[in-house]
Amino acid sequence: MSKSRPVYTVELAGLKRDLPLFEVKPGLRIAILNILGDTALVQASAKALSERLVGYDFDVIVTAESKSIPLAHALSLELDKPYIVLRKAYKFYMGEALHSETVSITTGVPQTLYLDEKDRAMLKGKKVLLLDDVVSTGSTLEGMRNLMAQAEAIVAVEAAICTEGDQERWKGIVALHHLPLFVD
């Protein structure tokens, strides 16, 4: 019989979720928001974020290949805007792709984000919304910002379901909730 994992209970877009706590380094745990397969939460979060994004002017939603893909799709439907996924592996059909390195708190290892040739052409001169499920260290956002600069796109707004860690650092991000860090 395994020991029960501690959870952090949150209300997101009117839905209650118990987020399991996982240790990312000795003495530091984070609450893991995994929206994959949680259709109700994805839809409710997209609706709530779309309401908070009223007044922001952008043409395209951009996200990194991660758990935020279903959120980007749902938000795209809510706002009637296209979305682009920055990939984590290069494929030959991506042509002359741009790339930027990032380090995720959940993997702890460097990853490369790729913007393929087709999407690069679509972004040039466009205003974009950078979207993530959780903004924690900001590394993924920084990688996305770097790619947008290379693609000559303008970052108009950044959004996530949750921010995490230093709340002051994320004041400019449109988010539904802030998650604390759990220090032992």
Automatic annotation (TrEMBL):
UniProt xrefs under CDD domains: PRTases_typeI
Protein name per the record: Phosphoribosyltransferase family protein
A Pfam family the protein falls into: Pribosyltran
Keyword rRNA-binding in annotation: no
GO molecular function: glycosyltransferase activity
Phosphoribosyltransferase domain location: 42-154
UniProtKB keywords: Glycosyltransferase, Transferase
Naturally occurring in which organism (per UniProt): Thermanaerothrix solaris
InterPro entries listed in its UniProt record: PRTase-like, PRTase_dom
